[in-house]
Amino acid sequence: MQIKIIASENGPYLVEVDGRVRYALCRCGGSNNKPFCDGTHKRVGFKASQHVIELQ
């Protein structure tokens, strides 16, 4: 099983398992559905760079 956590540019953390996105987790702190992303980052102008962490 391959797991990646992708901090998407200006968006949520994406948890990917075996090449398929399973969860989108709030990274901006503004979601009304924490810990999950509800798209608030777009409305509040959240800015952050992309990073990828691969777990084995």
Automatic annotation (TrEMBL):
UniProt-listed Gene3D superfamilies: CDGSH iron-sulfur domain, mitoNEET-type
Domain Iron-binding zinc finger CDGSH type: 10-47
UniProt-listed Pfam families: zf-CDGSH
GO CC annotations, alphabetized: cytoplasm
Entry-linked SMART domains: ZnF_CDGSH
GO molecular function: 2 iron, 2 sulfur cluster binding; metal ion binding
InterPro entries in UniProt: CISD, FeS-contain_CDGSH-typ, MitoNEET_CISD
This protein's UniProt keywords: 2Fe-2S, Iron, Iron-sulfur, Metal-binding
Entry protein name: Zinc finger domain containing protein (CDGSH-type)
Biological classification of the source: Archaea, Thermoproteota, Thermoprotei, Thermoproteales, Thermoproteaceae
